[in-house]
Design a protein that fits this description.
The complex is a heterodimer of chains A (363) and B (224). Chain A is an alpha+beta fold. Chain A folds into two domains: 2-162, no CATH class; 235-363, Histidine kinase-like ATPase, C-terminal domain (Heat Shock Protein 90, 2-Layer Sandwich), CATH 3.30.565. Chain A is built from ten helices and seven strands. Chain B is α/β, with parallel strands linked by helices. The chains are: A alpha+beta (363), B alpha/beta (224). Chains A and B meet through helix 5, helix 6, strand 2 and strand 4 of A and helix 2, helix 5 and helix 7 of B.
């Protein structure tokens, strides 16, 4: 901001010098007038070089800056005699005012503005409408510029902080991926060797296998959650993938994200979970089951398959007769609530659920 | 496959984890495969590949640069008869799909048992494709994406036949080739062919896309 101010200083200096030369006949003491202009030129150069380095922007410099401006204002009657119209520095005092506003925010802007206003009023023998207007603008403008400068600097600091945080997070994610990959490798190896050795080692292998699946689905969920923070939707593929942490369950999904409203995703995953619970109960704990997700522009298809003995013929009818809602009907109902259809095929070679759930086309 | 046939299968193992590399190498050697080379990263793999001339490369996707996908593409470019079996721990979906597009014909997660690994290497060496349900789901999803995309229906658009889609879907649902053959009243070989065709179409599409990209960028002039 001080760079912009440096440009402004040159502009107002040129303006002040030009105006004073144009009205050179107003000077009662031309030599003093020329000296004043020289002081302005020199001080402008000094100020621009001094302010360029942040370490030199001290209270002393700012006080000197303001003192030069006030001093030139106070010298105006000496140079031009009393009853003059324009002070010698004119708008040039803006440089000092804005420096205070930028450095000390609204308080600095107000203090500098009041000093300049008092000095300006002190040398006048009468106050016209336009003089009053200029002074009013200075007193109001100083604090406003100061306030905006403070907001801008705070925003810049916040942006820098956010950029640093994002860079740190990205680096952390990269490191985490390397660590996760190493851990996955070891868990896989323990699982594999454990099974081959048998006995207690097999138990260790089984535990390692569970952790491997858990970590893998965690990574998938994490990857899915990072890039787009679009609120209210979830990746159905990642959520279903997390079900692989159940023993015997294999999940197949497309490589691309399947974004659906969070409530819909949660319900579909819950229904698939209920199907898998059913597999565990009727076929056996850890019995193999497969989940397949397919995504179409206007609907998703999810299937859950097992290779159990199938649902016996009479069990559904029996449940209805006893007046209770069987698991099968509850699953159908929940899919129907999502506006979809559920299809069940069961036989001696296994049971397969197929769900067809419509999705909003805006996706 | 008989043992005599198996002895002639030359295998290269690429993995940056020494533990894993050794384990896989030991298992392969014990089963009678000829491990002609090992490498810990992409550049080692590409440097040793021409001299070792393996028939099958067992490749981890997460290796130091160049990564598994690039290594796959380069190996297939140098020797189209070489087979790449991806053995991945993280199972990062996008990478697996890219490796398959680049020409890998098999994919296995590292938690697979030793027997599964040996079987996969044998089948890949024979020219079969080794699909997991997960890979079938990815490939299925990719064809759906291509056919639903903005350029669908174009002349270069790869599309699966109804039968291929049906078979691939069954693989994704965890059915074995034998189960699929029984269900659809087909021979085991026919099912195998359908599955192979889906990969071939995907790889072909990838090559067409790469060529088109090269022509658009004017890269083809460099060799002219």
């Amino acid at each position: 901001m001080f760079r912009a101010l440096a440009v402004l200083r040159v502009v107002v200096l040129a303006n002040a010098v030009a105006l004073n030369l144009y009205r050179a006949d107003n000077f009662q003491r031309p030599l003093a007038g020329v000296l004043c202009l020289l002081v302005m030129v020199v001080w402008t150069v000094v100020a621009i070089t001094a302010y360029a380095d942040p370490s030199r922007r001290t209270l002393a410099l700012l006080v000197a800056d303001l003192a030069v401006a006030v001093g030139l204002l106070l010298l105006s009657p000496v140079v031009k005699g009393s009853g003059f119209n324009a002070t010698v520095p004119g708008f040039w005092v803006m440089g000092a005012l804005l420096a205070w506003a930028i450095h000390f925010y609204w308080r600095g802007g107000l203090i500098a503005a009041v000093c300049l206003a008092v000095a300006d009023l002190a040398v006048r023998d009468h106050v016209t409408q336009s003089i009053y207007g200029n002074i009013f603008l200075i007193v109001v403008g100083g604090p406003i510029v100061g306030f905006m400068s403070e907001s801008l600097q705070r925003m810049a600091a916040e942006r820098d902080r956010a950029e640093r945080a994002a860079a740190t997070a990205a680096e952390r994610a990269r490191l985490a991926r390397a660590v996760h990959d190493g851990v996955l490798q070891v868990l896989s190896l323990v699982q594999r060797r454990g099974h081959e050795l048998g006995g207690e080692a097999a138990e260790l292998g089984r535990l390692a296998g569970e952790q491997e699946l858990a970590l893998r689905s965690l990574i998938r969920t994490q990857d899915a959650s990072s890039p787009t923070p679009s609120s209210g939707t979830l990746d159905l593929g990642a959520e279903l993938g997390a079900l692989e942490s159940r023993r015997g369950v294999t999940v197949a999904t497309p490589a691309t994200r399947v974004e659906l409203p969070a409530a819909q995703v949660t319900e579909v995953v819950a229904v698939v979970g209920a199907c898998l619970d059913n597999v565990a109960r009727h076929v056996g704990e850890g019995a193999p089951a497969w989940v397949l997700l397919e995504s179409f522009p206007d609907h998703v298809e999810v299937s859950v398959r097992d290779e159990g003995p199938g649902i016996p013929e009479g069990r559904l009818a029996e449940a209805v007769r006893e007046g209770r809602l069987g698991v099968v009907e509850s699953i159908r109902g929940r899919i129907a609530d999502l506006g979809g259809t559920a299809n069940l095929s069961t036989g001696s070679s296994g049971t397969e659920w197929e769900f067809d759930v419509p999705v909003e086309p805006w996706r | 496959m008989t043992d005599a046939e198996q002895v002639s299968v030359r295998v290269m193992v690429v993995d940056d984890h020494p533990m894993w590399r050794d384990a896989v190498e030991r298992d392969l050697t014990a089963a009678g495969f000829d491990v002609v080379g090992v490498a810990a990263n992409g550049s080692e793999a590409l440097a040793r590949f021409p001299a070792a001339r393996p028939q099958v490369v067992v490749l981890d996707l997460q290796i130091p640069e160049p990564n598994g996908v690039e290594v796959t593409a380069e190996i297939i470019r140098q020797d189209p008869s070489a087979r790449v079996l991806i053995l991945s721990a993280s199972g990062e979906q996008g990478d697996v799909l890219d490796a398959v597009k680049a020409g890998a014909t098999g994919y296995l997660v590292k938690s697979a048992s030793r027997d599964e690994l040996l079987d996969a290497v044998r089948r890949v060496a024979r020219g079969d494709t080794v699909f997991t349900p997960g890979l079938a789901g990815l490939v299925l999803g990719e064809f759906r994406r291509l056919s639903d995309g903005p350029t669908s229906g174009g002349p270069h658009q790869p599309a699966l036949t109804e039968r291929e889609t049906e078979v691939l879907k069954m693989v994704a649902k965890g059915m074995s080739y034998k189960q699929i053959a029984d269900r659809l009243v087909l021979s085991h070989r026919t099912v195998q062919n359908h599955v192979q065709n889906t990969l071939r179409k995907l790889q072909m599409h990838n090559r067409v896309e790469l060529t088109r990209y090269a022509i658009e960028q004017g890269l083809d002039d460099a060799d002219a």
